[in-house]
């Protein structure tokens, strides 16, 4: 293949020797890495170059010459165009094995650690699972209509032309085309920037971000759509604090976390439509139960829950221990966590607002000796916290991670600087058909 800066249109043959962390196949051409969209490990394909970079190139599959035994037909008819999923062409067992391999490689390469035991992967229903997300909206004059959906796989500047989504909640997935028709009929068709969706156990909400005030006719159309499809409609004319309901007047978003132990009552968490909640409701139930088993909370334990959000882990922990403290950086989430505790009759949970990416070692909660700690940080991980936590009295840490590289780095810190062992770790398939790796790890003294 030519090394000139021009991108040749002629397809070329490539053998895929690895699966990248973003779900693309990886080949090497003249020693240079080539990331091939639509290709799987072990396949021989004809590929077309898309874009050159200094250290790697990008291509797409034109033809599969020798398919992987794990290749399957994608369920979604928009799979090739939409960037929402990258692994629908790989069978479910191979998907989870690839994610486990990514986690293991990160532990070895970054953290220089390995778990004493690999936990069985936590999996659930792979379709119609996503209850939270953001849909792009674009009025395309050349097409004479509005597109609603995720970005194109080949060109992220454009919105994919889709009518339905197989991984979104049933209240949303089959209605992508109807949402596009709704926006297309509004007077303010060019003012709708995005639509966020958030679902509780009983209510699915849509948040319409609009860049100019909406007229009475548009408000009536949005209300009628919500009434027809049993969807709560919110408007967002400005920043996140501007979100307010249009219909009904007081919608209620909430989800229940069922206890897997009859001795402890369930908890129910209310939330606002832009609050962070786990996107996969079924997997969240299983994840919380999994975390409880690893944390092994006892009646005399005092537990610290960091990056606690709405109290997703804090409140189930509170049912089982003497005291739990949750710490979170977003004031609104902390306020709602405290309200959720009161609503569930929980009086042994306290919450604090603190930026956990700044030094908090002088805070009372940071100086307190906790028996156990649970961490659920964002992608950046928790290395700054681990400079001063956990204390020597802490004998068990459960770490829930949405980014294997930051977990691996932090595992190295816990093991090499704090004297823990990495007792067990495993992946949780929170985002089936994507390359996203959610994982959980147990550290013990």
TrEMBL record:
Residues annotated for [4Fe-4S] cluster binding in this entry: 76, 82, 85, 165
Keywords: 4Fe-4S, Iron, Iron-sulfur, Metal-binding, Methyltransferase, rRNA processing, S-adenosyl-L-methionine, Transferase
Active site: 402, 402 (nucleophile)
First-tier enzyme category under EC: transferase
Enzyme Commission identifier(s): 2.1.1.190
Chain sites annotated for binding S-adenosyl-L-methionine: 278, 307, 312, 328, 355, 376
Catalytic activity: uridine(1939) in 23S rRNA + S-adenosyl-L-methionine = 5-methyluridine(1939) in 23S rRNA + S-adenosyl-L-homocysteine + H(+)
Function: Catalyzes the formation of 5-methyl-uridine at position 1939 (m5U1939) in 23S rRNA.
Family affiliation: Belongs to the class I-like SAM-binding methyltransferase superfamily. RNA M5U methyltransferase family. RlmD subfamily.
Stated name of the protein: 23S rRNA (uracil(1939)-C(5))-methyltransferase RlmD
Organism from which the protein derives: Rhodanobacter caeni
């Amino acid at each position: 293949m030519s090394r000139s800066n021009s991108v040749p249109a002629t397809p070329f043959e490539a053998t895929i020797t690895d699966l990248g962390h973003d779900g693309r196949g990886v080949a090497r051409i003249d020693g240079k890495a080539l990331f091939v969209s639509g290709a799987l490990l072990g396949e021989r394909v004809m590929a077309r170059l898309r874009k050159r970079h200094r250290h790697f190139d990008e291509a797409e599959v034109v033809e599969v010459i020798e398919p992987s035994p794990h290749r399957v037909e994608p369920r979604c008819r928009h799979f090739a165009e939409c960037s929402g999923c990258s692994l629908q062409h790989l069978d479910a067992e191979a998907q989870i094995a690839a994610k486990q391999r990514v986690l293991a490689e990160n532990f070895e390469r970054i953290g220089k650690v390995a778990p004493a035991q690999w936990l069985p992967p936590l999996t659930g229903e792979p379709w119609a699972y996503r209850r939270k997300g953001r849909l792009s909206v674009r009025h395309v004059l050349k097409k004479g209509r509005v597109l609603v959906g995720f970005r194109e796989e080949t060109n992220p500047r454009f919105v994919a032309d889709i009518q339905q989504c197989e991984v979104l909640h049933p209240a949303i997935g089959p209605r992508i085309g109807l949402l596009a028709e709704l926006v297309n009929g509004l007077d303010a068709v060019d003012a709708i920037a995005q639509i966020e969706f958030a679902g509780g156990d009983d209510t699915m909400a849509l948040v319409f971000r609009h860049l100019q005030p909406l007229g009475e006719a548009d408000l009536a159309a949005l209300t009628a759509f919500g009434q027809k499809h049993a969807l709560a409609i919110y408007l967002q004319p400005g920043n996140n604090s501007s979100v307010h309901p249009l219909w009904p007047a007081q919608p209620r978003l909430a989800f229940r976390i069922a206890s897997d132990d009859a001795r402890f009552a369930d908890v129910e968490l209310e939330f606002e439509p832009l609050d962070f909640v786990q996107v996969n409701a079924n997997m969240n139930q299983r994840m919380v139960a999994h975390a409880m088993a690893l944390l092994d909370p006892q009646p005399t334990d005092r537990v610290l829950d960091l990056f606690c959000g709405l109290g997703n882990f804090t409140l189930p922990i509170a049912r089982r221990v003497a005291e739990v403290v949750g710490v979170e950086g977003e004031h609104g989430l902390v306020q709602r966590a405290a309200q959720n505790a009161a609503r569930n009759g929980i009086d042994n949970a306290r919450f604090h607002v603190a930026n956990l990416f700044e030094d908090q070692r002088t805070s009372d909660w940071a100086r307190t000796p906790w028996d156990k700690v649970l961490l659920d940080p964002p992608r950046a991980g928790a290395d700054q916290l681990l400079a001063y936590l956990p204390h020597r009295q802490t004998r068990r840490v459960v770490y829930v991670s949405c980014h294997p590289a930051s977990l691996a780095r932090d595992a190295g810190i816990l093991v090499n600087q704090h004297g823990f062992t990495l007792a067990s770790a495993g992946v949780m398939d929170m985002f089936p058909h994507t390359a996203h790796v959610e994982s959980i790890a147990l550290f013990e003294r």
